[in-house]
Structures are given as structure tokens and as C-alpha cells.
Amino acid sequence: MALRVYYEDTDAAGIVYYANYLKFAERGRTEMMRGLGFDHSRVRAESGIVFTVRRCNVAYNGAARLDDALTVETRVDKVAGATLSLRQLVRRAEEVLADLDVLVACVGENGRPRRVPAELRAALTAAATPGT
Q1: Alpha-carbon distance 22 to 2, whole Å?
Q2: Using an 8 Å Cβ cutoff, are 3 and 74 in contact?
Q3: What is the per-residue pLDDT for 127?
Q4: Domains in the chain: boundaries
Q5: Residues 9, 11, 77, 101: which is the catalytic one?
Q6: Average pLDDT score over residue span 33-61
Q7: What is the pLDDT of residues 55-69, one digit of tens each?
Q8: Strand, coil or helix: what is 19?
Q9: Do 102 and 24 touch, CB atoms closer than 8 A?
Q10: CA 110, CA 101: separation in Å to the nearest integer?
Q11: Within 3-117, where are the H helices?
């Protein structure tokens, strides 16, 4: 997913505020799901399933700046019963600025764990990185 750094994303020095990488990653996950044919609102309406981040580890390797063109790369590493293990990279050209290891939980609207729906599981498994 391509994005541009806007003034609202930066601090007074024009550097992206660290928490905004989490927002960029959220957008990347949403667009990955949409690209697989599963927008969040449809999944929720049809199955009552929503997604929540259970764990996120971030390595910040560099700083994005005002007007930078970035990409968010989202890779499915593993699909388990009620969780998705994802790797996300925020890049400026080939430079990795943030490297995120994200565990997303699939839950019902009551917040209790729910299995990933079969059709979504199949799409995510097909998109998963081989050998992980």
C-alpha cells in the first residue's frame, strides 16, 4: 500500500511521530484484507467477527519525513485457529523504516475469541508466505 507523509503525521521537526507507524500498519492490514476480497465491514456484518491487535513488536530503523513516499508491505506468516501472525514493513524506497511483527486476534463482538471464518482462512492461507 502506498502512502504519503503529511504534515499531520509529523512532529515539529518534520519527522513522523513513532505511533503513526502503527496507523500506517493498520491501513496496510485493512488494504491487504480488502485486496483479498474481505473488507472489515462486510466480515463483521456477515459473521459478527472483528479483528483486534493482541501483540505488536516494532523495530524502528529510520525516520520518515514530511512529504516522503512510503509503502506498507503486509505479509501473512501464519493463520491459526483465531489468530493471524503478520509481518509488516514500512519502507521508503528500499529502506525499511519500521519492521512490525503483529499478532491479530479474531473475536466476536462480545470480545471473545472466534475462529477465523473458513472462506477468509482459505484466502489468508493462500496468501501466506511459503515455509512459515
Answers
A1: 15
A2: no
A3: 86
A4: 2-127
A5: 11
A6: 94
A7: 999 999 999 999 999
A8: coil
A9: no
A10: 26
A11: 20-35, 40-47
pLDDT in the model for residue 109: 86
Query: Domain spanning 2-127: which CATH class is it, in words?
Result: alpha beta
Cell numbers for 82:
483465531
Q: Could you give the CA distance from residue 119 to residue 111 in angstroms, rounded to a whole number? A: 21
How many alpha carbons fall within 13 Å on the CB side of residue 3?
A: 24
Report which of 13, 9, 42, 43 is spatially closest to residue 24, judged by C-alpha positions: 9
Torsion angle of alpha carbons 26, 37, 130, 72, nearest 10°?
-30
For CA atoms 12, 7, 14, 99, the dihedral sign is positive
The angle at the Cα of 34, spanning 28 to 39, to the nearest 5 degrees, equals 115
Q: Is residue 25 a contact partner of residue 99, using CB atoms and an 8 Å limit?
A: no
* Residue 28 burial class via C-beta count within 10 angstroms: exposed 0-12, middle 13-18, buried 19 and up: buried
Q: Among this protein's residues, is 11 annotated catalytic?
A: yes
Query: pLDDT per residue over 82-111, tens digit each?
Result: 999 999 999 999 999 999 999 999 999 899
Decide: 36 and 124 in contact? Cβ < 8 Å. Answer: yes
User: What pLDDT does residue 132 have?
Assistant: 52
